[in-house]
Fold this protein.
Amino acid sequence: MLRGLVIGLLLFGCDEGAPPASPEPDPTARTEAAEAELTEPAPSAWPTDVGSLREAIEAFESVDACLASLRARTPTEISEAVTDLAYDAFFEDVCRSMRAVRDADVEGCDALTVSSAQRGCRRRLALLHGDPRACPEDRVWPGREAICVAWAARAPGLCRAAATPDRARCAAVLAGDSEGCPRAESAECAAEVERYAGALGDERRTSPATEEPSVFELRIASVQIRSDALARGVRAVAHGCRSNVELGGPSLGPVVGHVEEATFRLTLVVPAQLELPARLPLGALDAVLEVATPEHGLLGSEVGASGFVEVTALEPHVGGAIAGTIEERLSHLGETLPLHGRFATFIRDIDPVDGSCRAP
């Protein structure tokens, strides 16, 4: 919040009137300038001397002492701007957040005034205490924030689950080296390295599943289909004593007219106790496969389809492997189509099932 506030104040103060008109620049020069601008480091609202999160939490005494310290150190302009924003609880939220992070109190994070403060508090709690389950939900991608999970798990391989522009920043903090920061956000990234790397300790977790390329492919008769839908891993969501794992894109739903591009989606419902290799019958309960191709239209739910998914690997933790094969026979226009497939990727996020589900 403070960072956004500072940037907003700077931008507001810079608009002092329109500049005088100038001749239209050369188109080539404009293109080169635009490219140069894309590689220029973005401005950062972090201070020049960034304090370590671990040291700040270790020095924290109480909310009252924290508030007194902030009153003594905060510039008048910042306090004034916070008042302008009507965020009266800003400084109290800062100190209550530090207490929640110190005490590993997720409920304390969730009790803060605004959602952005709640999310930031959860993020710092997760990475300081090494608890990926405390990470906030991603605003776009299903599951918890991928960078937070990677930092909390101390697992550089999990940076693969982050959006492509964020992976270098994710890895730089885990490496404790700002040299790995992308140029376009070098100042911001370097500040995060200074702030968070010391809280992550020296131990790093490796996972073979995050080091191998993800695979998701099918063959229907002579049609070969490949997808990169598993490149960022999968999420396992607990429902009672089972976990739902979505492999592929969203549900295909009703397909009307011609299918422009081959696509497929597989949903697995995996019980807590599963001896590998395990066969899950394809149908409406254990394994649901939806396929659409330009050659055949929508497949996978027609009467007469039969087959199974054989799960060959399932490691129920972040960074763990999940892999298997698919065998099915489909009925299409009176013809039987053999289907073969395979998948292999890693678990980027998981909700553990209740411990009682694993009891004999």
